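Our platform keeps sequence and structure together, in a single record for each protein. Such a record has a labelled line for the sequence and another for the backbone structure tokens. This encoding replaces a full spatial description with a residue-level series of whole-number codes. Below, we set out a record of this kind in full and without editing:
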Amino acid sequence: MAEIKQVLVPDIGNYKDVSVIEVMVKAGDTVNAEDNLLTVETDKAAMEVPSPYSGVIKEMKVKIGDKVSQGSLIC
């Protein structure tokens, strides 16, 4: 059985509680490392959050409108 890995929000600068404005994957989707998982928006810019791993998404832990910070669980 494949190893289950958690994907966390990477270092997004000195921002806390940024808004998730787009979720690009759902449970069951296959992703490659560096594929974009979601987009977050600060008061200054929108940033895409890439996957650090290749694999299959088992469960998404965020949705549009959620607030996330560095270290928040994505999937």
In short: The chain has a mean pLDDT of 93.
